Amino acid sequence: MMLIGGFDALYCKLLMSTLAGAALEWFVSLPDEHITTFDQFATPFREQYLLNRAPTRISYDVFDIKRYQGESLKEFLNRFGVQVRLKSTHEATTVHAFIKGMLSGPFSESLLRFYPKTFSEIRRGALTHIAVDDQVIEKRGLIGPV
Fold first, then answer.
1. How does pLDDT run across 131-144, given as a tens digit for each residue?
2. Taking a C-beta distance cutoff of 8 angstroms, is the pair 94, 84 a contact?
3. Are residues 46 and 65 in the same domain?
4. Which helix (H) or strand (E) holds 82?
5. Residue 96, H or E segment
6. Do 139 and 67 reside in the same domain of the chain?
């Protein structure tokens, strides 16, 4: 419709043909000559139906995800990431829950010193920390038991 042009009355009439059920009943219930432009129609339509949309849920059960004793940082990071993808959480909630779920150690202390703003920042820091840990383990293996 925007490509071929048109006018407000035509927009409203054509839109009406796409409505069904409750949306059509709502449209028909509008007072005659109450709406004279498409913009006058679009605003109440959005208000009517945006309110009916389910609100984004904040999932606080991500705070139940804890790093197990003996679990590697890589395993915890992956497990936490999977759980966060399954739940709808705000970024700040995700960051706080991850830090709260960490066991005390060098990486958790670095998170508290340089508090990340996003889970991506946590992941980047964790991958660096994991790489350093892997190098230390590899060197210990080459040197043998101390």
1. 887 777 777 766 65
2. yes
3. no
4. helix 73-86
5. helix 91-101
6. yes
